[in-house]
Amino acid sequence: MRLSFTTSNLIASFTLNDKGEGLTASYYHIVIPLTNTAVGAELTHSFSSNENTLTNGTQHLLDPLTAVKARVNNYGKASALIKHEWRPKSLVTLSGEVHTRAIERSAKIGLALALKP
Question: How many whole angstroms from its chain centre is CA 14?
């Protein structure tokens, strides 16, 4: 079940997940439409484990073909990516993730290539 409010530059919603086992509240706001700079937040509550997760994120277009995104949650997991459209509908993405509260764990790094004819 979902309840949402949408305008041209804002989306807010409440969603009941997993057959009523979780509740998610999310907010997404485009701050600067010209560069698609946006901020967002998501709060998830699990009724079975009584845990909450708060995630904050942002995105920005460096140019019409290149975007950067970043997010961090209350457990210290931080991730970022840069995505570039090098041909029409063909993307290359470089991403990384680190757990800031367990720095001894290995960071994750990814490279993705999406090709469309």
Answer: 17
Q: Which two tokens stand for residue 100?
A: 């800031």
Please name the residue ranges forming H helices in 42-117: none
What span, in angstroms and rounded, lies between the C-alpha atoms of 32 and 60?
Answer: 9
- The pLDDT, as a whole number, for residue 3 is 92
Residues 6+ apart with CB under 8 A from 86: 65, 92
Q: 50-55: long-range contacts at Cβ-Cβ below 8 A with a sequence spacing of 24 or more?
A: none
Which residue type, as a one-letter code, is found at position 48? S
Q: Are strands 51-63 and 22-32 parallel, antiparallel or unpaired?
A: unpaired
CATH number at 60 reads 2.40.160.10
* Number of domains, the chain: 1
**Residue 33 three-state SS:** helix
Provide the residue range defining the domain that includes 40.
2-114
- The residue count for the chain: 117
Binned at pLDDT 50, 70 and 90, residue 6 comes out as: very high
